[in-house]
Amino acid sequence: MVDSQQNKGYRVISMFDRLMDGQGISKKQEAFTHQVGEKTIQRDLDQIRVYIEKAKLDCHLKYVRTEKLYKLTKTGENVLSKEQVLAIVKILIESRALLKSEMSDIIDKLISIVAADKQEFIHNIILNEKHLYVDLNHKKSLLHLIWVISEAIQKKKIIKIDYLRESESIPSQKILKPLGVIFSEYYFYLIAYDSKHEKDLPIVYRIDRIQHFLELDKKFQIPYSERFQEGEFRKRIQFMDAGELMHIKFMFKGRSPQAVLDRLPTAKILSNNAGECLFEAEVFGRGIRMWLLSQGENIEVLEPLELREEMIETIQSMQQNYLYM
What is the sign of the dihedral through the CA atoms of 189, 193, 196 and 200? Predict the structure, then answer.
């Protein structure tokens, strides 16, 4: 009796594992393999079906007549499709956000979501990119630090960090009101207010440069109307370099005004004459200067006048680098 129960347990678990792995179950083949009748296999499948319903798994057991197999099919929309997994994996690899070992582990877990017969396809598609993935120079694991910072943000706790800038050899201590964590162009950033100032522009800190982190037993309050919104902040910042918030106008003479709208989500086209587009946008000052200069002759800054003059001075200074050989 014990052997019979053990055999049944092994049989049911074996079928369930293979079903969850995306494989199909043939009643005839299972009966032959386990030396039992097909009615016994049918009872096993009925038990699996009842378990799936009670456990509220996001799938159901279905008989596919064209294949003469029992298979699990997804019932909800909260499961990533093979197309979604492939796109996410591609984005993750391009981000270079994590250590190679961490990235590899996350990618493997994402691919495991997909049906077994599609996993090898995705592995083969990204094999070269995954193999040639290069860690960033800081070579730090940031997952735990990102988590504890995010906890402090949710609890509205003041934090103390030791922060080491690239040009410095000794870290400086900062007491901050953490507002948000943002990822942009290879790096994770902490956005925070200096606790010494009641009203100030948010300051940007690269998380990999935080040498030590401590959550203090002291809370801070920000009125709901003045709450930090990562999405709105991201619309206005370039290269994670904040500075003063300003309204700008510029003429764009390049081939793709759409690329400008994608890069500057707050931008609007005021006019478009013969391929020359007049834009206005609300942006943070320091970062936008870098982007404007990167557009070369395709950009002419019109307003504010102070920014236009800074652009002229910078271009004249750049020109000096090419006067002599």
Answer: positive
Q: Is the overall model pTM greater than 0.70, yes or no?
A: no
Q: Report the C-alpha gap between 315 and 299 in whole angstroms.
A: 12
Q: Mean pLDDT per 10-residue run, the chain (325 residues)?
A: 65 88 88 89 89 81 86 70 90 90 91 81 89 88 95 93 90 92 88 76 88 93 69 67 81 90 89 89 82 90 92 90 76
